[in-house]
Amino acid sequence: TDIDWIDISEDIRHEYLVVDNLRPAHGYKFRVLALNKFGWSTPSIPSQIAMTPSSGACRAEFYEALQVLQVKHPPLIHQRSAIAREDINLDVDVSPVTYECETKPLKINKGRFSVTANVSMSGKLFSAKVFDKSNQEGEDAAKREFKNLRTLRHEKL
To answer: What is the pTM of this model?
Structure first.
């Protein structure tokens, strides 16, 4: 069955959200979406059914305290312009980049066409994939790898 989802808030600053005016003795499901510089995420998996108590039930003891904390902070939603997606340049850099590694690379795995290694630079640890481009087979493998990486869409790649 299709569920009519209702947006409750676009700004949740804590690990909870106080929802008012729910019908007594009624079941509700909840789900969450996230906003970052890439836009809104897909909705989470719906929660289990949460039943509200029957009419005449008193509010939870902590209701007023949570309500005060929730209202205390100004909404973040007005900062959307700062979160707007930046232009991402997916062009290939054809000039070779040389890095001065501070420590000897630690080999993780060696495959037919490349070696994966951990290298340390400026106090940070990176994983690198090194291709042997001295023969045509290694050159082709490197080109295939870069072609595959260009098709990926992830904020940390």
So the answer is: 0.40
